[in-house]
Design goal:
This protein is α/β, with parallel strands linked by helices and about 280 residues long. The protein is built from ten helices and seven strands. The strands form two sheets. The protein has a four-stranded parallel beta sheet with strand order 3-2-1-4, sandwiched between helices. Strands 5-6-7 form a three-stranded mixed beta sheet, covered by helices on one side. A hairpin with a 2-residue loop joins β5 and β6. α2 packs across α7 and α8 packs antiparallel against α10 (about 235-245). It is globular and about 55 Å long.
C-alpha cells in the first residue's frame, strides 16, 4: 500500500471504533494517532496521559499543550510504576508489568467515560525488537491502529509533517526505565539522574540520544553525526562536570552510537516476545 492508502485505512479503522481513549504520551506516534482520531471521531475521543517518575515533565507539558491547542479532552492518569510488584527489580518483562497496569487503568477510565475502546501508538517498526509491552496490548484487547494500517515510523513522520504536527521531527523517546540494564534495581533517584542528564544534552542542542545508566556510570548514546560536537573540549567538560553533580561517577560515550533497545542486546533467544496484530 502507498502511504496515502495507509492513511485512508487508518482513518477507516479508527472510524470503526466509534469512540476511543488514546494512550497519549505526546510522542511522534501517539500524536499522529490522537490527531487522526480527533479528526475522525470529534468529541468521541479522549487522551489519557500517564504521570509517573519515569515520564519526564517536559513530555507531559507538551502532551497537555497539544490537547489544549486541539480542543481534546485529556485525563492525566497517576501511574507510578515503582509501586508495581517486581518492577523495581527490573526483570526482562518489566515493560509488560508496566503496560498491563497502565492499560487496566485506562480501561477503567474508558468505562467511566462511556468510551468503547482503548488505542495505543505502536507501529510496524516496533515488531522488530523486544517489546514485552505488546503482550499486554494483546491480552487486554487494546487497539493498535497504526499497526493495523501497516504504518512505519518514517511514514508516520511524513504524515505528521503533512498535517502540520510539530512532532514530525521530534526525537524518539522511551520510558526512562529503559535506560537501566535488566536486573539492576530502578529507583526514583536514578530515574531523576537520567532525566536531568538527558535534559542537559537536549538543552545543549543534541537531538536523538539516550543516557544509559550502569550503577553510577553514564553511557551516552548519540547519533554519529554528533560525535565531533560532544568531543569538543567545552562540551565534554560541561557534560562531565554536570553529570557528576547529578550523581554519576563515570561518564562515557558509546562508540556504537544511538540505537533503540540497546539494553536488549544482552537478552538470549527465548527471552524475546514480539507481538503482531
Amino acid at each position: 500500500m502507498t502511504i496515502d492508502e495507509k492513511y485512508v485505512a487508518l482513518k477507516e479503522y479508527i472510524l470503526s471504533l466509534e469512540s476511543v481513549a488514546v494512550a497519549f504520551s505526546g510522542g511522534v506516534d501517539s500524536t499522529l494517532l490522537l490527531k487522526t482520531a480527533k479528526d475522525v471521531l470529534g468529541d468521541n475521543v479522549i487522551a489519557v496521559t500517564a504521570k509517573s517518575c519515569s515520564f519526564p515533565e517536559r513530555e507531559r507539558r507538551e502532551a497537555e499543550e497539544f490537547c489544549r491547542d486541539n480542543d481534546i479532552r485529556q485525563i492525566v492518569c497517576e501511574s507510578e510504576e515503582l509501586e508495581i510488584e517486581g518492577f523495581r527489580k527490573n526483570p526482562v518483562n518489566r515493560c509488560y508489568l508496566c503496560k498491563r497496569e497502565l492499560f487496566e487503568k485506562i480501561k477503567a477510565i474508558v468505562a467511566q467515560n462511556g468510551m468503547k475502546n482503548v488505542a495505543e501508538g505502536s507501529n510496524m517498526d516496533d515488531l522488530g525488537d523486544y517489546r514485552p509491552g505488546l503482550q499486554a496490548v494483546e491480552e487486554l484487547d487494546v487497539k493498535s491502529p497504526l499497526r493495523h494500517a501497516q504504518l512505519y515510523k518514517e511514514e508516520i513522520r511524513e504524515l505528521s509533517e503533512r498535517l502540520g504536527l510539530k512532532t514530525f521531527a521530534k526525537q524518539s523517546f522511551a520510558c526512562l526505565a529503559s535506560r537501566f540494564p535488566y536486573g539492576e534495581e530502578i529507583s526514583e533517584d536514578k530515574l531523576r539522574m537520567v532525566d536531568r542528564a538527558e535534559q542537559l544534552l537536549l538543552d545543549m542542542g543534541f537531538h536523538q540520544l539516550r543516557v544509559r545508566i550502569h550503577k553510577t556510570a553514564a553511557r551516552i548514546e548519540l547519533e554519529e553525526a554528533d560525535f565531533p560536537k560532544i568531543m569538543e573540549k567545552p562540551n565534554r567538560e560541561k557534560i562531565v562536570t554536570e553529570l557528576k553533580k547529578y550523581g554519576f561517577t563515570y561518564v562515557s560515550l558509546d562508540l556504537q552510537g544511538y540505537r533503540t533497545g540497546s539494553m536488549n542486546e544482552t537478552l538470549k533467544e527465548g527471552q524475546v516476545w514480539k507481538g503482531l496484530r
